[in-house]
Amino acid sequence: AGLVVSFGEMLIDFVPTVSGVSLAEAPGFLKAPGGAPANVAIAVARLGGRCAFLGKLGDDEFGRMLAAILRDNGVDDSGVTFDAGARTALAFVTLRADGEREFMFYRNPSADMLLTEAELNLDLVRKICSPEGHGGGEGGGALLSYDPNLRLPLWPSAAEAREQILSIWDAADIIKVSDVELEFLTGTDSVEDEVAMRLWRPSLKLLLVTLGEKGCKYYTKDFHGSVESFTVKQVDTTGAGDAFVGALLGKIIEDQSALQDEKKLRELLRFANACGAITTTKKGAIPSLPNISEAMQLMEGA
Length: 302
Ligand code: ATP
Fold this sequence. Notes:
The protein is 30% helix and 22% strand. The chain has helices spanning 36-46, 61-72, 122-129, 158-166, 179-186, 193-196, 240-252, 262-279, 292-299; strands at 3-7, 11-16, 29-34, 50-58, 76-83, 90-95, 101-106, 145-146, 174-178, 206-210, 216-219, 224-227. The radius of gyration is 18 Å and the shape is globular. 40% of the residues are buried. Adenosine-5'-triphosphate binds at residues 178, 210-213, 215-216, 229-230, 232, 234, 237-242, 244, 273, 276-277, 280.
């Protein structure tokens, strides 16, 4: 089977024990392990795929707790390193009554920001590049997928965020942005095709724009279109985008021909939408990521 290696941060979100309050009003907080790349890794594993996480945690109780969560969920943690000096990243996050998310990060710097090139577990990267690692699917080869996961408070300025995020564009094969990120990166308030196409590069194999309850749009060099999502009772959208990406990557490493075959790609995105939709039906990210039977059930309307 193919291997997905997810690279980036894993952290603990602290979320208020009651909903609809500001961070200052919150009477207490619960630990919610997360970080988009870690959520993606767990999404892949829960759907039955092989996944490893590459990143750095603090050599502290929270860091060891997070590594154990990866292992307990079937994610290979051999790419996790621990920083002796810096703490595991924390983020206090709330969905206020007005629907806006409010973040407060404790990363000054946190361990995840201190991973050095020398600490990268290149064996994992070599495994993806091996014939075994990419599953030998049609049109195989290692793929680089990128999700900017914009968090403006982490950047010195909006201009810097835009410039740094776009600097990855030419290196990636697959890019997934949300509707909000599309608007931010293009400086528009539109998710129309002609706006999304501004983020297209000839080096890309697939550009995806997620649209929340409306599903997603896809762009390749040969075709583009949209795939509707499923109707669910939304409780908390945290992790929906990560479930979507995990579902997509787990499938695509098994059969890359979906990148050239629109019918196959649409079927795959239907699956990714279902996984995103399910994730919105429960609180938190990791607890609500679906397994394969939950995804199938939603897709078959059972
Ligand atoms: P987040 O940052 O909240 O993890 P995101 O903004 O990256 O998510 P969304 O567009 O919110 O991503 O959601 C990803 C996918 O999940 C959507 O493309 C859609 O398929 C599915 N989804 C999200 N919300 C809903 C919903 N309310 N109903 C049905 N499907 C949904």
